[in-house]
Amino acid sequence: MANTKDIDHPAVFPLKVITELIKLLSMEDGLVLDPFCGSGQVCLASKFLNRRYLGIDLKKEYCKLAEKRVNGIESLI
Description:
Elements (H helix, E strand, L loop, with lengths): L14 H11 L5 E4 L6 H8 L3 E4 L4 H12 L6
Parallel strand pairs: 1-2
C-alpha cells in the first residue's frame, strides 16, 4: 500500500492499522466519517476497501492533500 514517508502532515497513521480498523468497524458500501481527515489516510483506506467516505478538516491545505491522495489511489491498486 501507500508509502507515507513523503506526506506533508505531522500525524500520518500507518495505513495497515487504519485499514484493519475500517474492516472491523464498517461494511462494504458503508459510510466512513473522518472529521479530522488531515492527510486523508482514512479516506484512502476506505476507498481501497470499497467504503464510501466523508473527510473533513479545518485546514484547507489538508483537505487538498487528502483529495490529491485519494484521487491518486488508482495507481496504487
